[in-house]
């Protein structure tokens, strides 16, 4: 559709004078431009390129940018340029070759006329810039990286943008009034809660450090927030992002190392917050709030001692059973909680009634922000109107829905674990980020003996994840099995989910039941000695169902399922992609015969 050109020029007054003399699309036409130096890059758009470059030449923050590339096209308009600007910015941030100097205030996903055609042309523009060595990796390689998936330079959908705007408007109002506040963002898996939290933190830093001489586009949803008053309100403003899960926390810290406005020290454990003896945080954003811990036995004796010491210091002798949620509230003036109660996976997680109260209070105070649009799983709603996440959760219940197919989504069930592993390896070779994951239904023997196998089924022998930090991207992970603790909060292209013997179908009652004898997460069944509560099989069953629902909603392009219990496999077969295949291993790899019911397109 488009016929673009890329003009390269040196950033200098003399060069701009030449371009001004040429006029036309350099002075009176919408263009997108890329400015770069050795280590930094900036992407912008303007109707008057020459005038905008003169402003950049006087900016101390952009003094290291030496070369400009101007993308010209006679079909460009404002909407196209904003979209291309955001697209290239997100890819630069995702690759990590350069520090991206952009604010993220304009990273909004907006539709416009013939967008699909323009988007196809964007890929060609990327390849031209890659030819000129501005990029090193391909688009799929960049999009598979954590730098891309967890970047603050992600385009927000309408629901996410509305939530960010409302939260910040009320925050600034509260800062002027000198009062504290608590807000909640609630959403299912894949609705982008983590992205909103990271985006919001970066936007606050942009407002705080913005140059008053910088022109903030009035079309930006957040342009009204870039005021001198707000900059003053954010002077010495202390912010933090609390992430309970170790693996996700490490990945986000790595992202923050590549963003000039952010610092890995902003990413905190709940224990970091509780143990702080310095100034309180002005704002704490808590991701995966449902994974905060109540007073329960911790993974180590040292953590038990820390938990008790923090409670004693913050709340005195009467606060022995306070939770990490109480720490957050005590150590900050403003809090933003990102939550999905259906992703609680251990008895030590924040109790369901506490989560309900948190949500209820936020609703009453008009500070509850639901996210509804599912951004991860590329599955259109089925014939009965259920989206994929709701469907999966109901499939694991004792009141399963009528079977339905999801157009464009590769949902399959396997009778052979070896076959499923072979298919996951094939998908990983095609598009990357394809992994096996499982419930904690097998002992972790290989943790102490690297030569031992943990999962042995159908002649297939596998080990649990060898690392608990960034396992998804670790060498050899395609031949390992990840647990809930290594994948919660992450995206995969394809997930091969092993539903172990910890779930089985009871023939007499027809109910799905929990089998304690085949569950090896000690913290997943442990009684709470501080509250005196002993968890029944039915109570643990709720957590295990949540675990499998989380695992079954990791795959962007597809989900493959193997069920260890034969009766449960037959129960789920119709719901999760009925298929029977024969498979014969060979030296060149697995081959299969499909019965024609494959949903992958």
Describe the secondary-structure layout:
Layout: E1 5-10, H1 13-22, E2 31-36, E3 40-46, H2 49-57, E4 67-72, H3 78-95, E5 99-100, H4 115-131, H5 139-143, H6 146-149, H7 158-177, E6 181-187, H8 193-209, H9 228-233, E7 239-242, H10 246-257, E8 267-268, H11 270-275, E9 281-286, H12 301-315, H13 324-330, E10 332-339, H14 352-364, E11 368-371, H15 388-395, E12 410-414, H16 417-431, E13 434-438, E14 455-457, E15 460-464, E16 480-482, H17 484-487, E17 492-499, E18 503-505, E19 512-514, H18 522-525, H19 537-551, E20 555-563, H20 566-573, E21 582-584, E22 591-593
Parallel strand pairs: 3-5, 6-10, 6-11, 7-8, 7-9, 9-10, 12-20, 13-16, 13-17, 15-16, 17-20
Antiparallel strand pairs: 1-4, 2-3, 2-4, 14-15, 18-19, 21-22
Morphology: globular
Q: Total strand count, please?
A: 22
Largest sheet: 7 strands, mixed
Instruction: Report the C-alpha radius of gyration, rounded.
Output: 26 Å
What does the average pLDDT come to? Answer: 90
Strand content: 15-25%
- Distance from N terminus to C terminus (CA atoms, Å) equals 26 Å
**Which architecture of the largest domain does the CATH hierarchy give at level 2?**
3-Layer(aba) Sandwich
**Strand neighbour order, sheet with most strands:** 12-20-17-13-16-15-14
**CATH topology heading of the largest domain:** Rossmann fold
Low-confidence stretches: 579-601
CATH superfamily caption of the largest domain:
P-loop containing nucleotide triphosphate hydrolases
- The tally of helices reads 20
Structural class: alpha/beta
- For the record, the CATH class of the largest domain is Alpha Beta
Q: What is the share of helical residues?
A: 25-40%
Domain GIY-YIG: 28-100
Organism: Gryllotalpicola daejeonensis
InterPro entries: GIY-YIG_endonuc, P-loop_NTPase, SLFN_3-like_DNA/RNA_helicase
Protein name: GIY-YIG domain-containing protein
